[in-house]
Known about the structure:
This protein has helices at residues 59-63, 108-119, 164-167, 169-212; strands spanning 9-13, 20-22, 31-38, 43-46, 49-53, 69-72, 75-82, 90-93, 97-103, 124-131, 136-141, 144-149, 152-160. By secondary structure, it is of the alpha+beta class. It has one domain (9-212).
Amino acid sequence: MKFDIERIEMRMVDHDTAIEIRQDGDGNPRRAIGYGVVYGRETEIFPGLIESVRAGAFEKALADNREIKAFFNHDPSMVLATTRSDPALKITDNKTGVKYDAPIPPTTYGSDLIVNLERGNVRGSSFSFIVSNQGDVWTEKKGVLYREIIEADLLELGPVTNPAYEQTTAALRSAESVYKEAREALITAVERARIISANELELKKKMISVLEKY
């Protein structure tokens, strides 16, 4: 499946949802465990735009059993696991958010990731998604836009060194484009409401004028 890079959005999860590194016995690979998505948390994407993800936003995508991948730093050349690999990436959708349990492969970048996780150099998680048609709700308060994601396709998630917007200009362009489109839509809706109100007012005036003649 091909995706339009301009539609793919990436987000950073706060450090207080830290990544855990774990290893069970019997020679099983070490795993990176963390929350790629946290529900209900308002995050300032950039000045003037606050975003949150509603609980269950990825329920449909997860129910469809689509392949989801875990990358390090959103880099497909540093894949940790997928939901169809062996060992497989495990995804859990709960009241907190979407949790990932990603086996770390015995590769050079896998070994580097383990060291950086142990040292605390890598503490954040991130996810990539595409909002479904009419999958977000926009409101505006005191000049600030609020966007709530209510339905989206989850593409990948995993540990990151830096916030996605600092390293992915395409993601920033995507967010700015969504922001501008939403603001224009809201302005259009407000103007339309004003026009409707003005027309209704004129109609009421005419009706009163007619009634006063009788």
